[in-house]
What does this fold into?
Amino acid sequence: MENDSLYEITVYTENQVGLLSTIAGMFTRRSLNIDRLVVYPSGIEGVHKFKIATRTSASMARAVVLQLEKKVDVIKAFYEIDDERSSREAAEVRNFLSMRERQKQ
Amino acid sequence: MLTGAEILLESLSARGVDTLFGYPGGQIMPVYDKLYDYSDKLRHILVRHEQGAIHAAQGYARIKHAPGVAIVTSGPGATNVITGIADALIDSTPVVVIAGQVASTALGTDAFQETDFIGLTTPITKWSYQIRRPEDVAWAVARAFHIAGTGRPGPVVLDFTKDAQVGQALYEDVKCDFIRSYVPVPEVDDKLIAQAAEMIGKASRPFVVFGQGVLLSGAEKELAAFLDKGDIPAGSTLLGLSALSSDNPHYAGMLGMHGNLAPNTLTQHCDLLIAVGMRFDDRVTGTVATYAKQAKVIHIDIDASELGKIVPVELGIHGDAREVLSRITAAMKPSVRDSWMKKVVSECKAIEKDKVSDPEINPAEGPVRPGEVIARVAEVCGGDAVIVTDVGQNQMLAARYSRFCKSRSFISSGGLGTMGFGLPAAIGAKIADPSRKVCLFVGDGGLQMTIQELGTVMQDSVGVKIILLNNNWLGNVRQWQELFFGKRYSFTRMMNPDFAAVAAGYGITTVNVEKRDDLAPAIDRMFSDDAPFILNVHVKEEDNVFPMIPPGKSVDKVMLNNKDWFEYGE
It folds into this structure.
């Protein structure tokens, strides 16, 4: 069995109505839980950018990216392991919360 | 200024569309009203249920090699085509569905016959779009046809609001052959072609598995030339049938669960597996864990997401089958292979003929077997007819015992396995090419799923030859119950109507065949003219389709009948 990692999948799309549900549907179909979803203008005129984090295997991340790219209005899709950055961020949050806990006492 | 409805019909004509399969209703009435004035340009086939419209459009598309068009109303009209849309997606069939929708001002209000059709069909379409303004109609239609028919073909939905149908706009035809985010035909690097040619040159036992991609890209000649030059045997998937003539010397037979012994055996003994325009469906691979593990794999497909999806590949070539095959053929050296593979093919064919095919198509006694009906039809048609199937035993046997000498001659619901597909698909196929014989093989279960389309056959005098392999069972499920569920025949026995009486109500001639001696004359009578005809053959009731690779088994471990197994080399 492959190990799961937290992947960040980035999707560049045309600005078309309904793409959010199209993209979300690709994850739902494979029972992939979306840990994080951000949508914003990409900086390239008329191009939107989705960033979706999900915990899965490398082969599943690759399959999702290829099938996302198949959608007519999807321009490009990428995937990368998000684990390191995300665990650093999580550690920061945990530190912050425990600091606040101490401050409360 | 034209109305949106008129712009739709003008745009369809501009795309070369001349036939629509449809059913009117409230929210598509403005289009139907204008259609009344377009009857010289657009032939409308009134089906009896919207599912019939979409399957007929699919059958039509497979013969025409161009998108079929279905037109329906909103709400139930739209939801009734969903099965066919899912079928067209998984079988890469180009169809454009035009559905009425409530006025854009009423969207989201739970108006009468409103459904979120885009939401319902997003996961099963190649593209879908809601037309809310008459100004967008020409653009949307042009884009829909471009997307449906290019690359890996598929279904497209246009959800057409009523106010966009009646509103007016200036009409100017829009061309669409470029969408920047959509690359239907990718460029293939010379390096990949050279690498493929080298791998094929080095292989001692290469084997080709091909699918419908060969037909969709029009690569039939290129495939045959490739096999000739490389001296390579080939097996077809269900939907690849007829891409290679049945008597091509390199053709080893059909792959998969009920396929032929030879191609399934070669899959497990080749050193190079070359997959062309196919997607390693589980009915082809059996258990993937043991599938062609000894072989290197080259996979050629126009859909990049298919490469490595199921079977790991040494070389994936993302491209059009016709172009890639012709370039590899040009780049490779001619070969004459050792005779080992030819020996395997002839031995497998001999065993299969003796153990499976002969008892099925030449039984000396007992009830009529479905295989002998199919073989007899194949003999009379000489491989020239369009063979349409429904789903189940009729489908597998028709695939096994039909013969093909013309491309695009086999129409079946492969990926989705849609019972009820056969009759409307046969109607669409016959309308697409009235000059060809169209033979439908269908079971008693599947026929009753869309039997209402006999009304369409009647109204438009569609000369389909309906061969009903009637065993009073849901045969395929019954077979699985017998083999894998302890003979517990849970709800698979069917009490059937008098089909001849039903057909008589539609004015369609039926001949019932109970005895073997009556079969050949009845088939001759069926082909004596081009009128619709039902041949109702009472076939052996509790019959199984063999050979069979049971689910979860490797493709070279094959059941020949209820007790004998086959594995090459044993």
